[in-house]
Amino acid sequence: MTRGAVEERASSPVGGAVAVLVAAAVWGTTGTATHFAPGVPAFVFGAVTFGLGGLVLAATSGRAAVRAVVGPGSRRWVLVGAVSLVVYAVAFYAALADAGVALGTTVAIGSSPVFAGLVEWVADGRRVTGRWVVATLVSVAGMVVVTLARSEASGSGSLPLGLGAALVAGLTYATYSWAVARGMHVASRPVPVPVPVPTSLSVPLVGPPSGSASGTTSGAAAGRGVVGAVFGLAALPLVVLALVGGGDALTVAANWPVFVYLALVPTVLGHSLYAVGLRRVSASVATLLSLFEPVVAAVLAVLVVEEHLGAAGWSGIVLVVVGLALLALPLPRRRRGPARS
Question: For the whole model, what pTM was predicted?
Answer without folding.
Answer: 0.74
